[in-house]
Every structure is written in structure tokens, then in C-alpha cells.
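Bug report (template v2)

What were you trying to do?
Predict the complex of my protein with DTB.

What happened?
Run completed; filing so the output is reviewed.

Input:
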Amino acid sequence: MRTPDDVLRLFELPFNDLLFEAQRVHRMHFDANTVQVSTLLSIKTGACSEDCAYCSQSVRYQTGVEAQSLMSLDDVLAAARNARDNGATRFCMGAAWRGPKDGDLDRVCDMVRAVKSLGLETCATLGMLRDGQAMRLHTAGLDYYNHNLDTSADFYGDIVTTHAHADRLDTIGKVRAAGIKVCCGGIVGMGESRAARAGLLAELSALDPPPESVPINLLVRVPGTPLSDLPALEPLEFVRTIACVRITLPQSMVRLSAGRLGMPDHLQALCFFAGANSIFHGDRLLTTPNPRANDDQALFESLGLRPMALASA
Ligand code: SAM
Ligand code: DTB
Ligand code: SF4
């Protein structure tokens, strides 16, 4: 575990020293040329009650996202088969909910069982969970639950007012207690200070045990959201952030998540060098585009990266 000041000192290292240390730590725990590949599907889109200032799916912002109720099991299965055939080993189902109602959770549990039977790892991100819900997901075979802290406790209230940072920690605790692996990270480029970025990383490293999977999203500035006109984060600050995550959470998978579409290959390459070892693959994230499969394949080939096989495969 590291304090915010510890992490801030990492951010302030000379760039080469920081990247060298991140790569050294990375190689202690992982094969440096292997990248885990997940695919996302929005199983329920838009019309969310929450006011997260970055999100295209909040009912409060005019973003042009068309609301869609919970998808059918058959449609989810078809998307999962397609993801598997395109090389994904994990399938992540996302729903624009504050949290699932019990009836909806039954249907998601059916999806989890069916996706798992295809030989994929399963992940879901459904918002805040109530008592007993995490255990039902675990029983259905859910491997990972994604619930991001998103930003530091100090800055969280500037971004979301309809739920609290403490609510996020509560759900993460329920997921952990139910025996589901935790996928928890955040977003950078929301106008937060470097100290706030360091604060988020310190909070992630204080989770006990730390999350198995840490998605780092670069804000996708969606027109119509309150954050749409923010200046872009300086690209090397993003690379520094990835390096600091790798050093702070040495044994976690670090996912280069939203924001890859706008990144040139050399920037993604630096992120992999800094210790990122997972991506979202496929043409869409939840509501916004992602790099094309062919472009990712070309990038992997040019960098000599290999997709990570499942441990059981
Ligand atoms: N509603 C659930 C929740 O908020 O936990 C699950 C879905 S929510 C869309 C999942 C995550 O996507 C958020 O926690 C955030 O990290 C990420 N995300 C959403 N919109 C984004 C954006 N415009 N740019 C970057 N990341 C984003
Ligand atoms: C995560 O940390 N990033 C993913 C996943 N978990 C659910 C979502 C990214 C969403 C980007 C904006 C969109 O496509 O709506
Ligand atoms: Fe709703 Fe999740 Fe978007 Fe927040 S991030 S508005 S909870 S879908």
C-alpha cells in the first residue's frame, strides 16, 4: 500500500526513471509481451438515473445515445460467441443502472451462466449491489465484477452527486466478500489534479487485497456531457499514470481501457512499455467507438505482442 504522497513522488520522477522502474516491476510479475483481451457489451443502455459528469448514458444529458432495455439472452450469447471467435478471453457485460433490480439480476445471472458455458471468463458492471446480489452473481459463475472508484475521494463530488465514493467502496466490499474477483480502476483527464490522480492510485492500492484488474480510462469527451469541452490530458501524463499504476499495483492486470481510439500507435506502445497488459478489443466500448480489430492486430504484430491465453486453455 502507498500513500498519496508516495505516488505523487513517483509521478515526479524523471520520465526515463519512472518507465524503467515500471518495466522492471512489470517483468517481475508478468510476461512483458502478453496482453489480456476483453470485449465489452452494453446489455442495457442509457436512461441512467445517475449524474456522472463523464457519462453518455445519464438521463440528465442530451448525448444522442438511444436508450435500450435489457438485451435478450440470445442476443448477448451471439455477441459473446463473436467476441470469443475474435480472440477475446473475457466478456464484460455493462448496464447503465444505479444498481440492478432483483428481477433484472435474475436475467443477468442467466447471461453469466450462458457466457461462461462458451468457455469465456465473465465480467459484469451493473452499478451498486445490495446485500445478497453479489453472492447470486458468484453462484451464477461470475468471475469479475467491474466497479470503478473512478477518481479520488476528494474529487469525486465534483464529478458525481447522486452517489458517494463511500457507496463505491461498499459495493467493492460486497463483491470481494462474495468471492468474485475485483476489477476496479478509474478515469483520468476529467480536470483532476496530479495529486488527485495520485490519490486514486493510493486508494486502489489500499484495497485489501488489491483489485486483480485495474482499468485506466482516458476520458472520452462525449458531446452533451458536462465534461465535453475539457482540454485533453497531456499524453505523456497519461503514460506516467499507467507507469505509476503498474508500480503501485505490481501484481494487478492494468487495462488500457477507454480512450485508445484517439491514441496513435506509438502512444499505445509507450503505455504497454509502462506496464499496461490488457485491452478492450472490438469495435465498440459501451456507447463509443474503439479501434478496429484490424488495427489492433497490426499493432500487436508490430510490437510483437501476443494475446494472453486462458489459464485453463
Ligand atoms: N453503471 C455502472 C457504473 O457506473 O458502475 C456500470 C457502467 S459505467 C458506464 C462503467 C465505467 O465506464 C465507469 O465507472 C467509468 O469508469 C467508465 N466510463 C463511462 N463513461 C466514460 C467516458 N466517457 N470516458 C471514460 N470512461 C468512461
Ligand atoms: C471500464 O473501466 N471501462 C469500460 C468498462 N469498465 C465498463 C467502459 C468504458 C466506457 C467508455 C464510454 C462509452 O463507450 O460509453
Ligand atoms: Fe449511470 Fe454508470 Fe453512467 Fe454513472 S457511469 S451515469 S452510474 S451508467
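What did the reviewer find?
The CA atoms of residues 73 and 111 lie 6 Å apart. DSSP finds eleven helices and ten strands in the chain.
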